[in-house]
Each structure stands twice: as C-alpha cells, then as structure tokens.
Amino acid sequence: MSKKNKHFANHIPSEELSQPDHNLAGEIKNRLHEEMQASAMDINLFCRNGHVHLSGIVDLYAEKKTAESIIKQIDGVKSIENKITIAMDSNITDKHIEKEVTDKLLHQEKDSVKGVGIKVNDGVVSLIGSVNTLKEVDLAMKAAAENRGVKDVVNNLSIASSGEFTDTAISDKIIQELSQTNLSFRDVHREVSGGVVSLFGYLDNQQEVELAKEITMGIEGVKKVINHIKVRDNK
Q1: CB-CB contact of 190 with 201 (8 Å)
Q2: Helices 61-72 and 134-145 sit at what angle, rounded to 10 degrees?
Q3: How far apart are the first and last CA of the chain?
C-alpha cells in the first residue's frame, strides 16, 4: 500500500504545484525525515495552497501523531488532513493492547498517571480517571499511543486542579516557572481565560517554544494551552 502511494506521490505533475507549495512540501519532507528518520519513509504528502494531505503507513499511532505535530510547527501550513494508517497485526488483541498500555502507564513517574484506567475496543484506547495537570494528560496519551495495535487514543481524563485556581494565579505561576529556566521569559506573553492559556512572543528555536508550552501544561489549573510563540528570526 505504502509503495503504491509513494509511486503515485512521486508522479504528480510538477506543474500542478505552485512554487510555494513545492517549497513547503520539500521543507515538510526534510523535517519529517530529520526528526522521524526511518519512521517517515512510508509517509506521503501533497500540498495545495498550504493545505497538507498525509497518507501512507506507519507502525505506531504515536508516529502518526508525531508527523502531524511536526508539520503544525512549520510556517505556511494552513491545515492538515491526516490519512496515515496504522500497520495492523491480527495477532494483537484488545486484551494484549490493554496489558501493554497498562504496563506503560505503571512505569510513568507521576502517581496519578500510574492510576489511569483504560478500556480498549477494536484497537481504540479510552483513558479514564483523573490526573493533576494537563501535562499528565499528555503523558498518559503518549504512553498509550506508543503501543502496537493502537488505532486511536480517546481522552476521557479529568484534571483534578481544574477550576481550583484563578486565572491571575495561573498567570503568575507561569511567569514564575518560566523565569527559573534559561528561556528569555520576558519575551513570552500570556493570556489566561477560564484556565485556557494563550502564549505569545518569540524564542530562539523550536525546542524552546515546545519547552515553554510543556512548562505551562505542568501548572495546576491549566485546562488547555494555545501556543502562538514564534521562533525569533536571527537573520
């Protein structure tokens, strides 16, 4: 399947693509291969006016989500249609997936993540229970996604600290936590409304942008993080 798609993708007439789309597709391919290496070999993409269509096959649901996450960070991408499929092994049952995911969760550092309950139905993993922060939700989601046979992960987790802190308290805590890192935190601005945090400003590279988001997700009371921070143009 992947070979057929790859053959098709390589024979799209170049005149159908505008130069910006051609350049964007090249940048996406480079980033995918750089960050995912062999896992990106069977991922195919097509760009049209900044809208990216993904197809092909990967071994893990986590790889499908990683590809999407990488592409979201690239300037010029307007939307992503992720039609990547997960390679299935008929020998892997829901009970096998449940055991593997449970083991992964039990090996997490956070106690609340270890206590997350799961249900598996036809390869779809539903996470159930309560954790302390949004970051712990993300940890549980990623742990579940890294197992063979998983087609999708559904988040039914509640955040215990949600609603317990004022927006002002959350905002103050964000700046306090960022100030204890090497990030140029004075260039990061935030807005908090009902526990939903929007981050703005500039940092030196994509790793710093992701770190600022990760730190914010680990703050109690945060329900969601919308990251608008850009990489500073040092040219």
Answers
A1: no
A2: 130
A3: 43
What the chain holds in terms of domains, given with CATH numbers, is: 2-86 (3.30.1340.30), 94-159 (3.30.1340), 167-231 (3.30.1340.30)
Residue whose entry in the numeric block shows the structure tokens 């789309």: 21
Query: 10 Å Cβ neighbour count for 1?
Result: 11
Q: Categorize the per-residue pLDDT at 72 as very low, low, confident or very high, splitting at 50, 70 and 90.
A: confident
Indicate the SS3 state at residue 75.
coil
User: Does the structure show a pLDDT above 90 at 150?
Assistant: yes
Query: CA–CA separation, 139 vs 225, rounded Å?
Result: 15
pLDDT tens digits for range 189-223: 999 999 999 999 999 888 899 999 999 999 999 99
Residue that the structure tokens 């006016």 belong to: 49
Residue with tokens 């249609």: 81
Q: Which residue, among 227, 220, 112, 228, has the nearest Cα to 174 in the 3D structure? A: 220
- Summarize pLDDT for 89-135 with one digit per residue, the tens: 778 899 999 999 999 999 888 888 888 999 999 999 999 999 999 99
User: Which among 45, 8, 11, 43 is positioned nearest to 26, based on CA atoms?
Assistant: 45
Cα–Cα distances in Å, from 36 out to 39, 73, 74?
5, 15, 15
- Global pTM reads 0.78
